[in-house]
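note to self — DONT lose this again. spent like an hour looking for the file last time. sequence + predicted structure for the chain T wanted, 292 res
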Amino acid sequence: MNETQAQLVERLRKKHAEGLLLWELENGFEMSPKQSALVFETAKGILLEHHQMERGRVQVVGIELGQSAGKRMDDAKKKEVVVTVDGGVEDLEYLGRHGRKDLRRMQLLRMIDEGIDQGVVFSEEDLAHLLRTSTRTVKREVHFLRQEGCEVQTRGYYEGIGRAISHKRVIVEYYLRGMTFADIENRSRHTPQAIKRYVETFARVAYVLAHRHVKPQERSYILGITPSLLKEYETLYRRALSKYPAKLKELEERYTGYPNPLPYKEIDRRKEGFHGALRGKKSRQGRAHARP
């Protein structure tokens, strides 16, 4: 990136809402740049995991996973999900390091990941609409990424292999294999901040599984991730116990030292998500008492 491009990215960064937040932390709260960045990344990681950061995110309708590619669009089951079209400062930093084409490729993979994580697989037309570009451009980018070894799961491709492949799980396994964040960024085309979030989320899952702090039916809710991603991370954890024990132990030891390893200090079992489990438990107890 030349000096002119660097100056442009820095101006855009300062004008962006997230740049204003960093400015406020440094000037309004008199934090150092390092402290401001740490507070910002911690808050952003939590908000993004729980789908609460609305700026730069849009609601979009897609075809649910499992719907046949040959089914008419009118007959296919659809679902509304939320995806990130503008990652703010994170995207601007990626733009500065890699350029506009790679930024678009990263955004494309991110939206595919977010859709699959919420139970939807996008077509190339859907992605073109979200990226505000042509379907031909998306097809070209998808072809390029697949040539580079990336699993780009558009609707037709997903239906062909019959299963969803989470980039998050792949990225965490790269980390467990000993790859650096820089190497993972180049190979997966995800931002360092996203990679860090995926690893930390996996660390929370590993913490819960190792210490049995949360009941199985409550894990997805308490950890703030979808059941499908939780299942993938649980599978990876069991794999890591035998294949990457040293790296897993290192991750668990580092994460156990956090002041609050889980997102919440208390579990409210009356909240949405536990009603079914509690009713099932009560009904089983009732049947047990009714037996002679």
